[in-house]
Amino acid sequence: MASDSFDHLIVGSTPVAGLVAGLLAIEHGKRVCLVGEPFSPFRLQRHFGLSISAVTRPETLILIKRAATETGKLVNSIGKGLMSRVDPLFIAETPDSAAALSHFRHLAISLGYAVEPVADRSLPGALLLKVRDAQLLGHGRLEPALETWLARHEVRHLDAAETAITLRKDGTARIAHDGRTVDAAEAVLLGDRAILRYLDADSLDRSIETIPGASFLLEGGKPLPSPFVSYIDRGVMLEQDGRVSISALVSGDPTTARTRLGSASARSGALRIAGEMAHPTLRTADGAPYIGPARGSKTNIVAGLGPVAPFLAPLLARHLAGKSASDEAQWIASRGPTRGNQRLQVAEYVAVPA
Tell me, what CATH number does 334's domain have? Predict the structure, then answer.
């Protein structure tokens, strides 16, 4: 490992961590070290990457749309076939969730998105919305290309299993790898797994909650009605990215996870669970993302972005480089540790999986 210090240490094994690390190096001229798990095609998906989210805050959707356009161009420059165009399907089955999803529909249409309701007799009383022409990152295709891209732009990429990280209260960090140590001026934990690995519960802001989560791989069924389906009230997201198999993320009570997954995937016919992995996840009590320091230190953490996280990479990189546009800076500042007094101004709709 080089003896020179780094401007930023990015800790995370998610696409957003890699994209932010690369953008800091390429667009902002920073010296960057990325620490995370190397990609394995045999690991179940722990996250999805979709360019739209059913949010209810207009300022949030405005920034998502802008950043997603940037990210789409960036990913296309990294390699071909790393994402696909899809029409994601969002499903609300309770009155409160339907009201929130209906609000999202009108907001999205006003911002130029093509959103249309879908009829489904098997879900009486539910609201189904299809968003046209979104972008879905290709798991298994993006990650290897991302690693090559980072190496080409001299982003130091270290295996978390072989690297010791010491986080200091002033926000700096010490990185030890292969018998050498080096400092980083700013540490950022990007992704649930990174935050839970390096911080204890007392270091998390009071707005952040740890909840059970699980990843599944399903095989043997028919195609889904969309390559990406989100059952808001069941805490189930399904992805079928050009393959017969279905990847699923299920949040909430682990004793009902399989039941909720089975009900969400029932229309795909007889399915076999080919893989299953339990893992804790993070969310915020008010549904808005958390971007700011950990409790008791200046180590930055980013949590609660959901599947749209990779598409917000340009916005996050500008924030870390101190070059945010005014509306971006205001949006991020209100979603940090000072949100308590303005929670109603940042809160998103939160469904409790049942």
Answer: 3.50.50.60
